[in-house]
Amino acid sequence: MSYSLVVYLVDQDQISPLINSKDSDLFQRLKEHVLDDLDEDEWEDEDFNLKAGLEHLVFGVPISEDDLHMAGYGLEKLCHFAGGEMLDTDRFDSIHYGFLENVKCVLPLVDRGAPFAITAWDDFPYVGYLTRDECRKLSAETEELDHPDQQILLAQNDFFKWVDAAADKNKDLIGFYY
């Protein structure tokens, strides 16, 4: 089985106040935003309980151990809701973790955890991030990339395009691997 990495260009300062805000109006707007992609049955689905993940993130509602990873999927929805831009990650579709291990500097977008004080989980999605300061540093240190595997080289180039975009726009990167 293979997985994909999805990366958002975000302003963490726009997302942070949403977490544990306990704001009912915000939650209603967020629900409407999510329902643009899902129908009401999917919103209430017990097997993929996105509602529970978002309630946990916004209200701090306790969440079962079985649904804890839904906070990760909820965080992805928060990124989009807060104006995050999904970047082009086509070269990171249908990949294995071993592929990521070969792409220079990408692992913090996968295995670092969320950049916010939320409960960690042991299941997909794996989440990681790079701050705007880290992106500026990586962008300034960009060197001539080389790798014998053309697919790895192209993926490395894409990664540094994300980093450069974050540095140029003074934004952060948050990645979701599932």
From TrEMBL:
Residues 1-178 form the DUF7691 domain. Pfam families: DUF7691. It comes from the Bacteria. This is DUF7691 domain-containing protein.
